[in-house]
Amino acid sequence: MAMNDLDQLKELLFGAEKEALDSITERMDRRDVRTVDVADVLPEAIYQSHRKNDELVEALKEPVGECLQRAFRDDPQTYGDVLYPVMGPAIRKSIMHALRTFAQQINEAVEHSVSPKGLKWRWQASRAGVPFGEFLLQKTLRYRVEQAYLISRENGLLMGHVHHAASKIKDSDAVSAMFTAIQDFVKESFSPDRTGRLESADMGDFTLWAVHGPHALLVCVIRGVPPKSLRADLSAILERIHFRYGEAIREYKGDTSTVPEVEAELERCLRFQARGEPVEKRPGPSIFVIVVLLLIVAAISFVVFRNWQYSRQLQELAVALESTPGLHVTDLSRDGGRFAIRGLRDPLAASVADVAASVDVPADRLTVSTQPFQSLQPEIIAARAAQAFGQSSSVRYRVSGTTLVVDGDAPWSWQRELKSRFSSLAGVSALDVSGLTASDRQQFAERIAGMSERKFFFSRGVEFLPESDSALRAYAAEITVLQRQAADLDYSLSVSIEGSADASGDSAANAALSYRRAQEAATILASVGVAATLLHQAEEAFAEAQPIADVSQRYVEISLQLQSMSDQP
Amino acid sequence: MIPLTSKVCVVGDFAVGKTSVIERFVTNQFSEKYLSTVGVKIDTKEIDFPERGVAHKLVIWDVAGSDKFGATEFAYLRGASGYMYVADGTRPATLIAVEQLHRQITDKFGPVPSVLLVNKRDLVADWEVSDSRFDKLASKFPRAYRTSAKTGDDVDRAFTRIAELVIDDELRGA
Fold first, then answer.
1. Considering only CA atoms, which of A355, A348, A320 is closest in space to residue A426?
2. Which of residues 111-130 of B touch A (CB under 8 A)?
3. What share of chain B is helix, strand, coil (3-state, %, to 5)?
4. Is the pLDDT of residue B125 over 90?
5. B90, pLDDT greater than 70
6. How confident is the model at residue A388 (pLDDT cuts 50, 70, 90)?
7. Does B5 touch chain A (CB under 8 A)?
8. What DSSP string runs through A218-273?
9. What is the pLDDT of residue A499?
10. Nearest CA of chain A to the CA of B74: how many Å?
11. Rounded CA gap, A290 and A296, in Å?
12. Torsion angle of alpha carbons B18, B23, B24, B26, nearest 10°?
């Protein structure tokens, strides 16, 4: 009862509250009701919590991750289907990119495989043990990012510009604006839906690549052939710039201070550069270098030529010295343009300097050291003979074997000297003078012939006509001189006398008279020491003649005979 | 001084002297020869404003003459910080073209600093724009000038003015 009373009292005092309390208790007890309540506030609670701080994310990170893992594992098909529209294009894009890069490499490989350069590289690659394709890539993908422009897509204003020191730079603001204008022009003119954009342009050695971001454009000027993969690298840089500067890029109005250090980011573009050979064409060698090289080449050529010339001179000199009689070279050497000669030289031989001059080697380039000796070479023996017996234009000496051959014409006395002394010459054992004449001896013989058969006349009996007497005496004196000269020429001069008479009278008497007349003449000749042979006139000669008195038949005739005392005529 | 770079577009009808006005301002030269601009031509010039502490480089877009803009021209105008509208004082129709362009641009890009140049002031005998007509059009612009690219009259002032207006607009925006 008391409990009931108490309950009644509670009901009276807290009727409405109790009802609410019961209701709350019932809701707390009933799970289904509690679930509905939580579901009611859950989205708002999550939203609020997420806005307040990161605790919710942290709390959900692990369970959600685990949920996803389990869900993917348990039902891959469903999630694959869900993700397909996202993954498909992404994969296609990635494959396309890879294929384009590959195609470019193939193109280059084909281009270079048959060229002379390609063949050379193939050889180099095989030597280096590198696959040709790899080697080709190293060689062909030569490029360098020369300049990078960061341009606002909104207004074409330049936010940053970097370049290599060597690059030639025009007004970069104008370049930036003009590129944007061209970009707009291309887009408006060639892209029907205005979504296309200019991504690359080629200009001679340079390639222009534009990488498009949401608010900015990265334009790179690249020298050489960049690989397709470079675009991904440049995109990464542009993404980084967007990430770092975000709003500042979108709102860029020409104040560079709003994008601080953007150029440091752009500098990263310039790092892209292919290994291998330098991309820039090497400048040609300067005129100075060419001149110096030419001078060096000329100097070397000159030295080589001089050396060759000296060697040739050395050979010529050796031959000339060798062929020079009376010279015997024991040592011939060259030091640059100077020649050193050692050896033996006959005093009669040509001088070394003269021999050298004959092959155009001046004496001031010679060092000569010779010892004297006696050469037995024929030329030198002949020269020695000429020195010994005197040189004259009418006499020639030569040596054949050991025989000294002398040709020409020389006085008899000289020949006699030669014959007596030739054997004293070294190397000579015989003398041949068959070609040698003695004109003085011949002239003497002719002179004798001319003086022979002179007649001297008588008046009567054995009395000379006065003029014949004196003539005979002079003739006799002359004969004494001739006899001395004949002896000098190895002749013996003999005299014979024959008398004559006219036919008048007795023949015997006439023969006797003739003989007495010859005796008379012989007496006169004997008076100057000239011996004569007397010849008898036969009597018959008178008998046969006409017996008339003829003065012209009263004479003596004196004849001169030469007889050689030498083996020569 | 703070360096500031701004895009300024010069617009107007054919042969009003846009290119000549720019050439006078940039190189201080004038050529009687008429060369029609195709597409767009770009010049730059820096003006210093020591009192504002700004070195202002103008990137001047010389847009091909037209009395009405199409998509390509609008693409060129995008992002401009200032406009210079140029008309020809000897051809009143060019003032109408300016009004039309001004309306188009304002509709598309909203209010942007601008100045009006009625050019060829040297051709006094051929001048056909009355003061009232000039004033009526000038009232739509912050500043208006009667210029001569040939003599250089007021050309520098007009460019200096647009440069100042752009700076003020930028500073206000900041």
1. A348
2. none
3. 35, 30, 35
4. yes
5. yes
6. confident
7. yes
8. EEEEEEE---THHHHHHHHHHHHHHHHHTHHHHT--SBGGGSTTHHHHHHHHHT-B
9. 84
10. 9
11. 10
12. 120
Q: Tokens representing A354?
A: 């003269």
ipTM confidence: 0.83
What Å distances lie between residue B148 and B20, B32, B96, B136, B163, CA to CA? 9, 12, 20, 20, 19
- Fill in the amino acid letter for B65: G
CB B154 within 8 A of CB B145: yes
Instruction: Report yes or no: A154 at the B interface, CB cutoff 8 Å.
Output: yes
Q: Tell how strand A216-224 and strand A327-335 pair up.
A: unpaired
A191 within 8 A of A202, measured Cβ to Cβ: no
Which of A170, A184, A263 is most worth mutating to test chain B (most B CB atoms within 10 A of its CB)?
A184
Residues of B in contact with A254 (CB under 8 A): 4-7, 57, 81, 170
Helix (H, G, I), strand (E, B) or coil at B83: strand
Rounded to an integer, the average pLDDT of A123-138 is 75
Which residue, chain included where needed, has tokens 């440091």?
A264
Instruction: Please check whether residue A385 is in contact with residue A397, taking contact to mean a CB–CB distance below 8 angstroms.
Output: yes
List pLDDT tens digits, range A56-96: 888 888 888 888 888 888 888 887 777 777 777 778 777 87
User: How would you class A332 by CB atoms within 10 Å of its CB: exposed for 0-12, middle for 13-18, buried for 19 or more?
Assistant: middle
8-state DSSP, A228:
T
- Token couple for A454: 């002179």
| Contact criterion met (CB < 8 Å) for A171 and B44 | yes
Q: Is A56 in a helix, a strand, or coil?
A: helix
Sign of CA dihedral A66, A68, A69, A74: positive
d(C-alpha B9, C-alpha A194), whole Å? 22
Please tell me whether residue A290 adopts helix, strand or coil conformation.
helix
Tokens read off for A394: 């009418």
More confident residue, A252 or A128: A252
Q: What is the mean predicted confidence (pLDDT) over A501-509?
A: 76
Nearest C-alpha neighbor of A338 from the set A320, A358, A356, A319: A356
pLDDT for res A351: 87
Which tokens in the block code for residue A179?
């590129």
Residues with Cβ < 8 Å from A155, sequence gap 6 or more?
Answer: A180, A252, A253, A254, B7, B78, B79, B80, B81
Judge whether A186 is closer than 8 Å to chain B, CB to CB. Answer: no
- Residues B3, A178: C-beta atoms closer than 8 Å: no
Q: In angstroms, what is the C-alpha Rg of chain B?
A: 15
CB–CB contact B6 A178 (8 Å) = no
- Helix A378-389 with A412-421: angle, nearest 10 deg: 130
Whole-angstrom distance, CA of residue A486 vs CA of residue A98: 132
Closest residue in B to A185 (Cα–Cα) = B72
